[in-house]
Every structure is written in structure tokens, then in C-alpha cells.
Amino acid sequence: MFALSFTIAGAEQGAGINAKGFFALLPPSIFENTVEGLSETEKQRLLVDGQAEFWQLADETDDVLVFSSLPFHDSTVALRLFRNTADNFCIAAIGTTDGPLCTMELWRMDNSGRIVPIDAPAEPDIREFLEPGRLLPDGINPSALICLDTDGVRAQPLFWSSRGLADMSVANDIRYQWTGTAFEKQILPKNPAAPRYSISK
């Protein structure tokens, strides 16, 4: 993880900050993974007016922001806060949420108002998505990405063939539930009658 941090004097600090306040402190780097992009000047317009040349604020709560691209709304970037009120820190996850090739960054603010990038949860073993004993076909190279969606943080399995992404079914979804202090990996079967597993990290 690269060394980068910001401290904003006078900002509401730690677990008390809201999503828009946290977004104001972040560099617009996650937008580099979109076709439209976002400059720092356009980010300020987006914060003040709710709309910039290529983006608009589509949804806002204290803990969530959703930005939609203009004019066709075919790209989405979301920010979600995860709070630890006991230790007065807050984590912001910001990421692209449309399509299988997602990107996500995690940033942490402590009670001094300093924000630093932090590591996302570790990518799961691809076998955790599959039925026990299932083997992948020859020529398939699997990988997984950590993504943000409206329900929180999840893992996205990818199966690559010589022709690009292959469409393959999986037995389990993998999510990372915020416990108030850390992200806990949950393996959730697509068949709701099957047992569930949780692994604290």
C-alpha cells in the first residue's frame, strides 16, 4: 500500500463524519477507472451543485453516496461509510459498481481527522465459490475482485478463457460484513437452505 495521507483542519472527525464530508477529502482517483473520469475541479462542482459535466449525485444518505454518469447513466461510482464509534474512526469504501470488472479503494479516518488508504479484505480462494470437489474446465483461469455494492463489500469471481470472460455458475456468494471493528468474511450459499459460514479476519 502506497504512503499517502491527508489531514483537513476543522473537518468533522472520525466516526462523526458523513459520506459527503468524507468524499470531499478523497482524491478522485477511483474515477480514473471510468470512461468519464473526474477532475478535482469537477469533483468540487459535484459536491456543491450535485452535478458536473459527466456526473450527477444520484442518491445521498449520511453513510452512502451514489454517482451516476451523464448522459446515459451507464457508469456508477458509490461511496459507503463503515463506522467504529467505540474507537472513533471511520472507513470509507469507494468503488465502481457496474460490471464484473469492479475497482474499490478503502480509506480510514481516525479521530485526528487524518485519512490514509488501507488494504481491502484479502481476495478469497476461488474454491470458496464452488461446490466441494468441483473442478474447473481446462483453459479456465479464475480470479476474484473485492467490490462495493449497495449492500456493502463483496467478492466477485471471474473466470477467464482464451476468448475473455467466461460465464460460469457458482454455488456461493462471498461478502464482507462490517462488525463495527473489522470486516468478517461470510460464505453465503446461493441455495438458502444450505449452511452458512463466517470467518473473522
Q: How is this fold's topology laid out?
A:
Blueprint: E1 6-7, H1 19-25, H2 40-49, E2 55-60, E3 64-69, E4 76-84, E5 89-96, E6 104-109, E7 114-118, E8 141-149, E9 152-161, E10 164-165, E11 172-178, E12 183-189, E13 197-200
Antiparallel strand pairs: 1-7, 2-3, 3-4, 4-5, 5-6, 6-7, 8-9, 9-10, 9-11, 11-12, 12-13
Which ranges are low-confidence, i.e. pLDDT below 50, for 5 or more consecutive residues?
A: 1-11, 195-201
**Distance between the terminal alpha carbons, to the nearest Å?**
18 Å
Global geometry: globular
Percentage of helical residues?
Answer: under 10%
Share in β-strands: 35-45%
Total count of strands: 13
Helix-strand makeup class: mainly beta
Q: Strands across the major sheet, in which order?
A: 1-7-6-5-4-3-2
The H/E string reads EHHEEEEEEEEEEEE
Can you describe this structure?
The protein has about 200 residues and is mainly β. It contains two helices and 13 strands. The strands form two sheets. A seven-stranded antiparallel β-sheet has the order 1-7-6-5-4-3-2, covered by helices on one side. Strands 8, 9, 10, 11, 12 and 13 form a six-stranded antiparallel β-sheet that branches. It is globular, with a radius of gyration of 18 Å.
